[in-house]
């Protein structure tokens, strides 16, 4: 059903598959499922169009979910930046805007701005939880992980540890912003905007390199179900209790976790995802015609992301490392 944003009624019971008309040539697919009282959850894929696990997991759930299965309100938005999803690109075609940098800020004109404005005004105030499923995109490949934005340790970390682990991906990463780094900012993100409104927010990094694997998709679909069950909006016995989660708990937020390069050239990695490295270990090279730049680990940690493009530019982050904080789980 094609409706205007102002016709959206989140209190109506049942399952509704909607197209929200944000402009003459821009509609946003949305499935709203409601039954009785309970938590209200917004589950999102496709914030970046070159990250596919979330698009597939959320769209499959939207196609198959029955109102009888749920308790509360579930809003499924599989193609958040619908134009970028259609193009398979991280950024919005046309104006190259990153939808995940437009939240919590004054909005200009353009389709991505309209989408962020709609979500911020019409959806976020009415939900308790936001689940935003990301992957590494064309640029990076990440370990399969649930994510939360928080300092470690902090009250936010304490409050969000249980849902982070309930996702039950192989890894669970606590991200903190590194103020000196342009990589992975928290400002402007959907998750950040949700947290600013006092909502609970969980995201993910589920593979990447511009493709989907059988394993990354399985972790995405199971993780989404696990989390919805933990929250209580899709009750069921399929959820893994957080205490039994197999996730390795990691912290990514020290400046040395972002391993950047000084020269441009071909990227020749020597370590794979999940490798534990020590400070000073050789992680790879940037190969130039006359010289090779060695890439040393600035700190100890677990390799949680590797650049997936063979050609790299000076200043790029080609590895991300994270601290193993598994001992903090108990
Ligand atoms: Zn993303």
What does this structure look like?
The protein is an alpha/beta fold and 330 residues long. It folds into two domains: 251 residues, Zn peptidases (Aminopeptidase); 71 residues, RNA polymerase II/Efflux pump adaptor protein, barrel-sandwich hybrid domain (OB fold (Dihydrolipoamide Acetyltransferase, E2P)). Helix content is 21%, strand content 31%. The strands form two sheets. The chain has a 15-stranded mixed beta sheet that branches. Strands 16-15-13-18 form a four-stranded antiparallel beta sheet, with no helix packed on it. Helix 1 packs across helix 6. The longest helix is centred in the last third of the chain and has 18 residues. It is globular, with a radius of gyration of 20 Å. The N and C termini lie far apart (48 Å). The model has no long low-confidence stretch (mean pLDDT 95). Bound molecules: zinc ion (ZN).
Summarize it:
By secondary structure, this protein is α/β, with parallel strands linked by helices.
């Amino acid at each position: 059903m094609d409706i205007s944003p102002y016709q959206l009624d989140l209190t109506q019971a049942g399952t509704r598959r909607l197209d929200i008309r944000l402009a003459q040539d821009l509609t946003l697919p949305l499935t709203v499922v409601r039954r009785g009282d309970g938590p209200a959850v917004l589950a999102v894929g496709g914030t970046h169009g070159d990250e596919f696990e979330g698009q597939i997991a959320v769209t499959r759930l939207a196609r198959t979910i029955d109102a009888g299965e749920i308790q509360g309100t579930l809003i499924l938005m599989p193609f958040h930046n619908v134009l970028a999803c259609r193009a398979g690109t991280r950024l919005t075609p046309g104006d190259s805007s990153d939808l995940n940098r437009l939240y919590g800020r004054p909005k200009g004109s353009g389709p991505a701005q309209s989408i962020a404005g709609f979500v911020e005004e019409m959806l976020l105030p009415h939900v308790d939880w936001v689940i935003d499923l990301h992957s590494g995109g064309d640029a990076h490949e990440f370990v399969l992980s649930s994510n939360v934005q928080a300092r470690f340790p902090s009250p936010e970390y304490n409050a969000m540890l249980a849902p982070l682990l309930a996702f039950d991906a192989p890894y669970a990463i606590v991200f903190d912003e590194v103020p000196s780094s342009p990589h992975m900012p928290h400002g402007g993100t959907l998750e950040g905007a949700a947290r600013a409104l006092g909502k609970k927010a969980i995201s993910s990094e589920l593979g990447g390199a511009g493709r989907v694997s059988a394993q990354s998709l399985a972790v995405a679909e199971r993780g989404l179900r696990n989390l919805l069950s933990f929250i209580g909006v899709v009750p069921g016995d399929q959820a893994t209790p957080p205490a039994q989660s197999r996730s390795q708990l990691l912290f990514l937020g020290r400046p040395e976790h972002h391993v950047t390069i000084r020269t441009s050239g071909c990227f020749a990695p020597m370590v794979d995802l999940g490798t534990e490295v020590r400070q000073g270990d050789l992680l790879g090279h940037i190969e130039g015609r006359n010289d090779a730049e060695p890439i040393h680990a600035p700190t100890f940690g677990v390799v949680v992301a590797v650049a997936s493009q063979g050609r790299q530019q000076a200043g790029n982050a080609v590895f991300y490392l994270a601290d193993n904080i598994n001992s903090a789980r108990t």
